[in-house]
């Protein structure tokens, strides 16, 4: 079996996706064609925000947000240490300092208690200016936004939602992509909503950020791309990817139901063997990954392998353990929960076309 069965999905949607791709080949507007605007409207409607702005990938989406928020050298931006590298990378890329935060042992998401501790530490040290928080909806589960929003407000920080894995998740009927000041997602093929290459998007209700990001994604354009009023980047979603995403977004609600069914079944069968994922009351996960905790992870992975069942380790290395961030001088004892997770988690196959068998 496949870890993520993109071929099964394509088989299911083939006629519609093929027709959408053919339409692009015929009209030939490969950059910012009509499918891009159509997708942005449908994404904004689905997520429940005023503006959805597509771009080249999820990392660029975060970079554009850092630029729009004016994150710069001397700023501290708080993010979980247990995440994919891009979350922390975009902070350092702007010359700012990533300040890592430990995880909640049950949800694997950023721990609000440790976040507040880290903010107070930065304030006490007086070297960096606390500027923003990037929370991550890890494995599809929205972070604890009710608590994070309180902390952001108390300390005057911007709150960014990295929903690269979280698209489709919910807290009390509010969808992932609508939390914080501004949110991002990724359409990398393995994400809950993936295209056939790279893609990403930014979501916000703020007209000012939206206008700024629309300019920044096309070389800091003013009236047009030959009128450059600021330094930006080149980060657009290809029309072909937008065409694919339009059909995948239409099928997404049904896939989300299937993913949740599969997760429920996993939990029913496995909760007596491993520590299975916790979904707090009122939360819905989009199950980017179904991740369990096992003390002897390697033995479990070998057992699955012998049965032809693929597994993956997300993530075996925390941000504070990455060579690129060695100079920040963190130790495992600074993040006991995340360091333990990196040694004990593994993920099982998960996609929208799983069969009971
Ligand atoms: C995948 C991912 C990204 C980056 O998305 P790309 O489209 O691969 O650039 C950022 N943050 C998290 C948490 C991710 O999982």
UniProtKB/TrEMBL annotation:
Entry-linked CDD domains: AHBA_syn (cd00616)
Chain positions with N6-(pyridoxal phosphate)lysine modification: 191
InterPro entries membership: DegT/StrS_aminotransferase, PyrdxlP-dep_Trfase, PyrdxlP-dep_Trfase_major, PyrdxlP-dep_Trfase_small
GO terms under biological process: polysaccharide biosynthetic process
Active-site residue list: 191 (proton acceptor)
Keyword Thylakoid listed: no
Family to which this protein belongs: Belongs to the DegT/DnrJ/EryC1 family.
Protein's UniProt name: DegT/DnrJ/EryC1/StrS family protein
Species, as recorded: Shewanella amazonensis (strain ATCC BAA-1098 / SB2B)
């Amino acid at each position: 079996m496949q870890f993520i069965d993109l071929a099964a999905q394509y088989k299911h949607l083939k006629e519609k996706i093929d027709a959408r791709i053919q339409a692009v080949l015929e009209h030939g507007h490969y950059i910012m064609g009509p499918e891009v605007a159509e997708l942005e409207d449908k994404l904004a409607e689905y997520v429940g925000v005023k503006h959805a702005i597509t771009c080249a990938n999820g990392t660029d989406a975060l970079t554009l947000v850092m630029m729009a928020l004016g994150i710069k050298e001397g700023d501290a931006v708080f993010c979980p240490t247990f995440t994919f590298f891009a979350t922390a990378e975009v902070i350092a890329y702007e010359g700012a300092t990533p300040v890592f935060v430990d995880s909640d042992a049950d949800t694997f998401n950023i721990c609000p208690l440790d976040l507040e501790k880290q903010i107070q530490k930065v304030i006490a040290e007086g070297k960096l200016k606390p500027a923003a928080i990037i929370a991550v909806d890890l494995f599809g589960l929205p972070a604890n936004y009710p608590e994070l929003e309180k902390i952001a407000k108390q300390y005057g920080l911007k709150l960014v939602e990295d929903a690269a894995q979280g698209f489709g998740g919910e807290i009390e009927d509010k969808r992932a992509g609508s939390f914080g000041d501004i949110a991002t997602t990724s359409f990398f093929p393995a994400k809950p909503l993936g295209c056939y290459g790279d893609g990403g998007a930014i979501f916000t209700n703020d007209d000012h950020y939206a206008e700024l990001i629309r300019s920044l994604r096309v070389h800091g354009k003013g009236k047009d791309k030959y009128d450059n009023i600021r330094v930006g980047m080149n980060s657009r979603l290809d029309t072909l990817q937008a065409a694919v995403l339009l059909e995948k977004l239409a099928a997404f609600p049904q896939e989300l139901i299937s993913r949740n069914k599969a997760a429920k079944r996993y939990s029913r069968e496995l909760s007596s063997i491993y520590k299975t994922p916790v979904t707090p009351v009122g939360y819905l996960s989009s199950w980017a990954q179904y991740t369990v905790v096992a003390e002897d992870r390697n033995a479990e992975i070998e057992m699955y392998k012998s049965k032809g069942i693929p597994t993956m380790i997300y993530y075996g290395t925390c941000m504070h353990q990455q060579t690129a961030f060695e100079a920040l001088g963190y130790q495992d004892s600074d993040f006991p929960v995340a360091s333990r997770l990196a040694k004990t988690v593994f993920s099982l196959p998960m996609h929208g076309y799983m069969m009971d068998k």
